[in-house]
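Why show two proteins at once? Because comparison is the fastest way to build intuition. When a single record is shown, students tend to memorize it. When two are placed side by side, the eye starts asking what differs. So, the first record is below.
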Amino acid sequence: MPIQWREEMCVGNLEIDNYHKYLICLINTVEAAVNCKLGKAVLLSHVNELLNYARDHFAKEEAMQSKHNYEHCLEHKKAHEALIHRLNEIILNLENQKEAKIIKNTEDGLFKVLHDWLINHILNEDMKMKVFLKSEH
């Protein structure tokens, strides 16, 4: 089921909120590629795009946190690293799977990781930034 952007996901910074919205679009694109049975090559292309965008977003978010001496910067960075590590594992796993197993394994693993992590990360970890960002203005 596609992720819907909800107002409670806003952290109060337009740049970060827009990054999160686009991450959600990329996750939904990965899900659509699986649901439409577009095949392994297309799925890997979308997951790699998601990985690259996540790396870029995380680096920018971490730089912003560091610049403003955000108190949870280190734990936030560790959470980002954990997701990047997990995405790399998923990509490696997808690359080594037969085409027929891709759909089942992606639904069982990738969707759960992406949905749970992204939603929980935004609603829990990134919400800590909301208070911090408001105090900076």
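Second record. Ask yourself what differs from the first in the token line.
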Amino acid sequence: MKTVTYTKKDIIHRVAKEVNAPDLQTKSFVDKTFRVMAEMLIEKHERVRIEIRNFGVLEAKPTKAKPKARNPRTNEIVYVPAHRKTHFKAGKIIREVLRRPTE
């Protein structure tokens, strides 16, 4: 099965078509939107949640330290410190569409 990869340029082009605006003007808005979302996710709060209705939720949440994690290549025991990770949970509409059987 082939993977389709969309880039920010593809998003800019589609949004520009939707709003009937030039790609260059739309690029500015899309860039700023992604930049602001990234800045929100990396804020110094322990947990950050960006909820976008009908799309999904982006979260930055803490993980526990793992003192006895294992490197699968070398079988070496390594320490993984506590850190934050990102998580995306699709909204209800997207989940329902993706759960439908493929034809």
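One difference worth noting in the second protein: The chain has a mean pLDDT of 94.
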